[in-house]
From TrEMBL:
Gene: surE
E.C. number(s) listed in UniProt: 3.1.3.5
Pfam families: SurE
Catalytic reaction annotation: a ribonucleoside 5'-phosphate + H2O = a ribonucleoside + phosphate
Coiled-coil zones: none
Known cofactor(s): a divalent metal cation
Main location: cytoplasm
Identification of the protein by name: 5'-nucleotidase SurE
Free-text cofactor note: Binds 1 divalent metal cation per subunit.
Binding locations of a divalent metal cation: D8, D9, S47, N99
GO CC annotations on file: cytoplasm
Cellular location(s): Cytoplasm
Source organism of the structure: Aliiroseovarius sediminilitoris
Domain (Survival protein SurE-like phosphatase/nucleotidase): residue spans on this chain: 3-199
UniProt keyword annotations, A-Z: Cytoplasm, Hydrolase, Metal-binding, Nucleotide-binding
């Protein structure tokens, strides 16, 4: 079994090591000595770039060790580089993460972690995005990725063995997994959950002047402790559950196609 690991926090991010350990655990259990783990991750942090690709300029890639590479590009770039330059054969699975911070609700639309999983799905590969929600329950932990480290392998195994993957579909499924902001001993279970919506979690601007008097604009995130509707991913996470959300890159609002068609007849 061959697994590709990437992320959006960068090649030196601690969450990447957690993802590599999860992949090693899963691959060895399924393939033993034939397991191969490949890592192609951004050379520096790429949080918030979504599904961006470096279409208008080239980027460099450097080998950091056996089957371990850093690319000066986005997470989606890393997947493309792995498939068409780095790896001699296509992977059986792509794992993106483990992201430091949640990619639940509207965060999913900005996430480079999910951008990499989406690119893998568009390339016809099974893909799972893993993210660790941060909050009061993770602040005192020795390992802030404790929940992801403890349950990540089980979630990935169960998705691989039993979840639908829509093999051959034009826009195939990929999975968004968010671990709750608690230690592993406080995790209550795993729940399938739709993508939620947090009120007042919009990104905003904070302006600051530099010592030279020039104005700079900083993008500022909204509060992450706001709940979504009951049963949605954010609320599941804040209640101590791991959320698993099936996703596709198809953005069509199918519930409005009929009414839109009638409008133009």
């Amino acid at each position: 079994m061959r697994i590709l690991i990437t992320n959006d926090d960068g090649i030196n991010a601690p969450g990447l090591k957690i993802a590599e350990a999860i992949a090693q655990e899963v691959a060895q259990e399924l393939a033993g000595e034939r397991a191969e783990i490949w890592t192609v991750a951004p050379a520096f942090e790429q949080s918030g770039v979504g599904h961006c690709i470096s279409y208008t300029h080239p980027f460099m890639i450097a080998e950091h060790g056996p089957r371990r590479f850093a690319a000066e590009g986005s997470p989606a770039d890393c997947v493309i580089a792995a498939l068409y330059d780095v790896m001699p054969e296509r992977p059986d699975l792509v794992i993106s993460g483990v992201n430091r911070g949640n990619n639940s609700a509207e965060n999913a639309l900005y996430s480079g972690t999910l951008g990499a999983a989406m690119e893998a799905a568009l390339q016809g590969l099974p893909a799972i995005a893993l993210s660790q929600y941060m909050g009061r329950g993770t602040k005192g932990l020795v390992n802030i990725f404790d929940a992801a480290a403890s349950f990540g392998g089980d979630v990935v195994r169960r998705l691989l063995s039993d979840a639908p993957w829509d093999h051959g579909a034009d826009y195939r499924l990929f999975y968004n997994v968010n671990f709750p902001p608690v230690g592993s001993d406080q995790v209550k279970g795993i729940k399938a959950a739709p993508q939620g919506w947090r009120n007042d979690a919009f990104f905003k601007i904070e302006a600051q002047n530099s010592p030279s008097g020039r104005k700079f604009l900083w993008i500022k995130g909204g509060p992450q402790a706001n709940r979504s509707a009951p049963g949605m991913d954010v609320t599941r996470n804040l209640d101590g559950y791991i959320s698993v959300t099936p996703m596709r890159a198809d953005l069509t609002a199918y519930d409005h196609l009929d009414s839109l068609g009638a409008l133009f007849e």
